[in-house]
């Protein structure tokens, strides 16, 4: 009886893994839903900060940033001059872009920092989310470029020397998203089935061979796909973050991996790993009991 009740342990573990995987898959599917659990977030609050006129810029007649500013309409130049020391809080607004963009598995969200971009650990006020299927991602570069051209300054990313390495980093994120999406779908499926079979094991007897094999296979499959997904998110996100921070710093763009996403994905993996250990333990316990039974039978015959 106690052994039958013990199947509640893998059931609970698989349930936790199922819920965490589900939340990661659907985070950001509507404005503000689990926004803190984005895969990666791009900080564009100071994008184009080198456009803001300085004393050196105003002395230059042409060329470089000075030449670009000379080409901007007088009204737009006034906007830049008025930003002053509030560059991190006002520049994105003046350029007509959002202060941050976050990548989720199925959406791309954007918004503003609350109360402002200079506040330590600010909140994220979501202004909109764009549906973005894993196999047809929204091109963030084109999105920002379009917003810049539609903004007050009517400039393009080319005019602020947008590095090609940043494009490469964004492409890296987009490429792994389809694989990660598929892995989490599989994880939800396998862990969900493992929840059902764990309850069935309590009814049928967890020591029955078919019960042990089915449960172990399902949990093992969930273990494998969650391990692959977690490693992919961790490594891929780190590569993209480092590349964007290295090459995007000069134009005022940075990236941050979603630590909440990482915590959830490794927690989902950890719980399914413990469930797998449970079923391996059941195999070992059952094997030991059968061995003792055979030995006792041999002893009785010898007697």
Automatic annotation (TrEMBL):
The chain crosses the membrane at residues 7-27, 176-204, 216-240, 260-285. It comes from the Eukaryota. One of its GO terms (biological process) is fungal-type cell wall organization. It holds the Pfam family SUR7. GO terms for cellular component: cell cortex of cell tip; plasma membrane. PANTHER family: CELL MEMBRANE PROTEIN YLR413W-RELATED (PTHR28019), SUR7 PROTEIN (PTHR28019:SF7). This is Actin cortical patch SUR7/pH-response regulator pali.
């Amino acid at each position: 009886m106690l052994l039958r009740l013990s199947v509640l342990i893998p059931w609970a573990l698989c349930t936790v893994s199922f819920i965490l995987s589900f939340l990661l898959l659907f985070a950001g599917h509507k404005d503000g839903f689990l926004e803190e659990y984005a895969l990666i977030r791009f900080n564009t609050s100071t994008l184009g900060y080198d456009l803001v006129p300085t004393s050196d810029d105003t002395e230059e007649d042409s060329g470089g940033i000075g030449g670009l500013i000379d080409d901007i309409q007088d009204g737009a130049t006034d906007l830049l001059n008025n930003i002053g020391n509030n560059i991190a809080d006002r520049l994105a607004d003046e350029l007509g872009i959002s202060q941050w963009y976050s990548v989720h598995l199925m959406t791309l969200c954007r918004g503003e920092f609350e109360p402002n971009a200079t506040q330590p650990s600010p909140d994220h006020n979501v202004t909109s989310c764009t549906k973005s299927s894993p196999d047809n991602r929204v091109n963030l570069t084109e999105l920002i470029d379009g917003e810049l051209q539609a903004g007050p300054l009517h400039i393009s990313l080319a005019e602020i020397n947008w590095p090609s390495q940043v494009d490469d980093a964004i492409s890296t994120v987009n490429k792994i998203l389809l694989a990660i999406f598929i892995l989490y779908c599989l994880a939800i499926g396998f862990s969900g089935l493992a929840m059902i079979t764990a309850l069935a094991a309590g009814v049928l007897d967890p020591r029955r061979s078919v019960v042990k094999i089915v449960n172990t296979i399902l949990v093992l499959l969930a273990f494998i796909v969650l391990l692959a997904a977690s490693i992919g998110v961790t490594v891929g996100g780190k590569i993209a973050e480092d590349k964007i921070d290295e090459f995007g710093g000069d134009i005022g763009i940075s990236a941050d991996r979603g630590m909440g996403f990482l915590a959830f994905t490794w927690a989902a993996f950890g719980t399914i790993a413990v469930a797998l250990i449970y079923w391996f333990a059941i195999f070992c316990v059952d094997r030991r009991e059968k061995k003792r039974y055979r030995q006792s039978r041999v002893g009785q015959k010898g007697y």
